[in-house]
Amino acid sequence: MTAETGIGARVTRKEDVRFITGRGRYTDDINGHGQLHAVFARSPYAHARIRSLNLAAARQAPGVAAVLTGEDLAAGGVGALPCGWMIHSRDGSPMKQPAHPALAQGTVRYVGEPYAVVIAASREQAQAAAELIDGDFEELPANVDTGSAQSFQPIHADIPNNLCYDWTLGDEAATDAAFAGAAHVVELDIVNNRLIPNAIEPRAALGDYDPGTDVLTLFTTSQNPHLARLVLSAFVGLAPEHKLRVVSPDVGGGFGSKIFIYSEETVCGWASKKLRRPVKWTADRSEAFLNDAHGRDHVTRARLALDADGRFLGLKVSTIANLGAYMSTFSSSIPTYLYGTLLAGQYTTPAIFVEVKAVFTNTTPVDAYRGAGRPEATFLLERIVETAARDLGMDPAALRRKNMVPRDAFPYATPVALVYDTGDYQACLDKALAMADYDGFPARREAARARGRLRGIGLSCYIEACGLAPSRLAGQLGAGVGLYESAEIRVNPTGNVTVFTGTHSHGQGHETTFAQVVSDRFGIPLDQVEVVHGDTAQGQFGLGTYGSRSLAVGGSALMKASDKVIAKGTRIAAYLLETTPDDIDFEGGVFRARGTNKTKTFGEIAFAAYVPHNYPLEELEPGLQETAFYDPQNFTYPAGTYVCEVEVDPETGGTEIVKFTAVDDFGQVINPMIVEGQVHGGIAQGIGQALLEACRYDRESGQLLSGSLMDYAMPRADDLVNFDLDVVRTDCTHNPLGVKGCGEAGAIGSPPAVINAITDAIGVRTLDMPATPLKVWTAMQAGNAAATGS
Amino acid sequence: MYNFTYHRAGSVDAAAAKLAEGDDPKLLAGGMTLLPTMKQRLAMPSDLVDLNEIGELKGITVSGGTVTIGAMTRHAEVAASAEVRQAIPALAKLAGLIGDPSVRNRGTIGGSIANNDPSADYPAAVVGLGATVVTNKREIAGDDFFTGMFETALEDGEIVTAVRFPVPEKAAYCKFPNPASRYAVVGVMVAKTAGGVRVAVTGAGPCVFRQADMEKALSSNFSADALSGITQPADDLNDDIHASAAYRASLVAVGAKRAVAEIA
Ligand SMILES: Cc1cc2nc3c(=O)[nH]c(=O)nc-3n(C[C@H](O)[C@H](O)[C@H](O)COP(=O)(O)OP(=O)(O)OC[C@H]3O[C@@H](n4cnc5c(N)ncnc54)[C@H](O)[C@@H]3O)c2cc1C
Question: How near does any CA of chain B get to the CA of A709, in Å?
């Protein structure tokens, strides 16, 4: 049984039966008795003062129960939406956090910002009434541009230069010294394009207040329901924590965008309490485009110093990061501790200095999006390393190999605060190059040229830090919460097992992966394990799912809890088998008195624990249920090499990815099929960023021009190629499963590989993402113009 | 969506009668364009007259050198039709390049040309193949049908019933799709017909147009080489977040060349 379903087995996902047969149960599938519907009035302007809102007509419209504004929320004691990570500027001052009311008060600062809500008996009635809100707005100048934000008039009156913080990491003097002694300096300007998440399930919320018990239940599309409850009770003040239940049922994708505490959930919860009726909201796709936190949006200048042999001496990075109009829940941490700390990459660069200026603009707030900071770091580093190789006339693979952290150098402390526990970067590179037939590329390029196509190859050797995080370290760095994880194992009297995890699944297949771990440990069939998550009334507190942490941290908690179950089972077995616990072996679901054929099965022990007629009641409590919290000692460090090969149509600028190779090191893999699925999705998303996803605001009006799927291109199967995947395995040294996390790697590693391949194909130095046919064609035109001196 | 009154018409005449009654009635074909607009509350017709049950509007016939496609024929049917593939392969190919499978399974040729989206594909076929648009009132030459951005020669209450395509000697369609919507950034239909060479361009400008310089060059020498040196002026072309006018102009030339190369 274990070999087929245990750790390492390609088990078909338990949850897929319900998903594929349409029996998933999502937030929008849940309805309350006498439910009302909320529709939000959203700013049509990127920046405007609200002179007045005439709500009379809307309030009198058919079916309307209430029309509420930001002032109503404030009067009702609803607090602002907080940002949970304090960053300090280089001068020691705290970041400047503007108030972020759930509904705008006095000023709207981005197109789509909600400033009022209409709650009515039907969605149609609420929509109709929302159109009757008569707002008098005074339009103000708006800025959507990252690079120039500091010179624009303040978007928040009390925040000069629109500067949230000016943060640095690393030793500037040492880095400058490295540059002073360098033989070569490579400089590159890099834009990391803003992305719009687009999970297939839009966000939704249903507030359902029970006046009988005074409990407010909030059903919502959250990646971290426990955290949502904590923030909504402790900071926003919706209800005391014990009177607030957050339920996040099946969640259809999130990619980070469902981590955060948003206006709509807050308003539905509060309005339900106020109106004593359930209040529901489900975003439509247009709202999702305007209002779900966006990702990335960096403008960077980077410089790499090398010695005459191509050894990296120093890296200096200056980044402006766009936070949007307000600070979303974790926004401050993304361009700092999830970005600057990754800039050593796989290399031994001895001196690194990074400065990040985070700015406000009249755009949708920006926060974590698959990879969150690490894709930005990887893109920068792997672009400049590739560029350095080209400038120096070196083989890009050889230059990387020369600078990689040697396999015998672990644990390896970087100059940017991380200690890599383990890895084998050379093995990933070697394997990827072999799989990609790197040596055969020149011949393929020639063959393509004969067909009139420009072929290019690009590498990316990424590293990421996953498994957020040691709580003590996170606290020192400004996190407002701990970052441990929890698990509870309830062995039921009949011997099957219910597992409660503090993480949640929004597509990752936790119900299968965690069940595999438990089934493997207890030697019981997979279908005897049920994984429960997503309901604060059922399971213990946990921090949720993001940053590829669920298995590395949550799985470790599960291992700890299962150790406790086995330990107690061992004592029960010793009593029943009339020996000492030290003489009990547990294997394959059987407790055995060592050296005898006296055994008790896992199920027999469970039964004995719950029907303790023959049981050491003097020494042991009845029952078999254990909880564990696990706080990691370090991050985990997945790493790998991606190789992308493209062909560009020189007449149209169209790029076709013709080969994509990915070799990842995720440590131990519990379910290779699920892991491959995660890598596939991640690579598709990275290719989306690299080739397709163009978030565009109008520079004058601040309107989101790419506000629908007709204009914002998400990757589709026919944009892609079959990915060639393999793994290298070095187990994480500090968690019990030796796992590292695989959820984001694909999105982190792939964009630079794609852009390196295209720039190789067309022979240009810089090319901004997404490399649409227009951009590639324009770059080629400019290159040709330069070449002919015109 | 705002409320509206729904009518299911059983015949073209019944549909025309309903159209004449309503306050601000609209025909409903595949709904691929109309319904999203209504859902976003950008359109609020008083009445929808559904053409989907009208048998006389559906189907494909090929006879006497003409392919006739009923207005309610879905893009997917045209793409898959063995007769169309045989008679005008470029037309079947064009239909198969529209949007995505669900759009092709619902969208219709009548709805597409009546809507006349500047980046729709069918206008390139109607003009490029010299087709005739048949309505419940008259016949309109393809060249006269598309009058401007989202504008056609259709009068109020006029219903497209079919499109008649004369079978060309040869024809090819080259399309550069928008990666998001899959509409044409530029699409070029080149055809050698009994009435001469036609080059129709969609996506590039506010409305489908014929490229006279290219037609002239190809009339004397039907080869890709004949097109070298002929450029498309960018002046009046569309310029948006997906493509600049200059890029579109370049694609017109590339598209025409590739279409010709396919059949020359
Ligand atoms: C995601 C997406 C991608 C698309 N991609 C493409 C593409 O690549 N290429 C392309 O060409 N198109 C594309 N389209 C448009 C698609 O082809 C539509 O089907 C077409 O534009 C409208 O056809 P319909 O049958 O859906 O018409 P409807 O939406 O039902 O109607 C459109 C308009 O035409 C009117 N109308 C309909 N039938 C008649 C008739 N017989 N007589 C008079 N008026 C009529 C209606 O009243 C309405 O005003 C795409 C659409 C979508 C949603």
Answer: 6
